[in-house]
Design goal:
By secondary structure, this protein is of the alpha+beta class. Helices cover 28% and strands 22% of the residues.
């Protein structure tokens, strides 16, 4: 990707998902992720699986070694490695994982927002803050209002 390619790029976000230590991920979310890609809602830039050992050390896991059950096609995601994530990024992401748990680090472009973001950049605007409101926070706020 060149600098000019970024003129048409949507906002890029990341997620860190923790899987319970006593259960293997079953892959049921991957078809939904694939659907988002196929509908051009997002573009997966990086998808990395890791395990945080009981001693706190970090181990990378190849996607085909995660042990998804059923007929999960991991081909699309096995190729999602841009090189943006380095060991330090993975260690920071894994810092939120409980020892013994595995996790996924997903970096993705919000393709749906690319035309809007491009128009703003052409106007000289720039994103200066971003954030997420956890669903638990929304539910608590709604409970407090009712």
């Amino acid at each position: 990707m060149t600098t000019t390619d970024f003129d048409e790029t949507g906002p890029i976000d990341y997620l860190v998902v923790e899987f319970p230590a006593d259960r293997r991920p079953d892959g049921s979310a991957l078809p939904l992720l694939r659907d988002l890609v196929e509908k051009n809602i997002i573009r997966v830039i990086d998808l990395v699986f890791v395990r945080k050992e009981l001693d706190g050390s970090l181990v990378g896991i190849e996607i085909d070694a995660v042990g998804f059950g059923g007929e999960v096609d991991v081909t699309l995601f096995a190729e999602a490695a841009s090189g943006l994530l380095d060991r330090t990024d993975l260690e920071q992401a894994a810092a939120v994982l409980e020892p013994g748990c595995s996790g996924a680090v997903l970096v993705y472009e919000n393709c749906w927002a690319a035309p809007f973001a491009s128009a703003l950049r052409r106007e000289g605007a720039q994103l200066v803050a971003s954030g997420r409101i956890p669903i638990q926070g929304i539910l608590a706020a709604l409970d407090a209002v009712n």
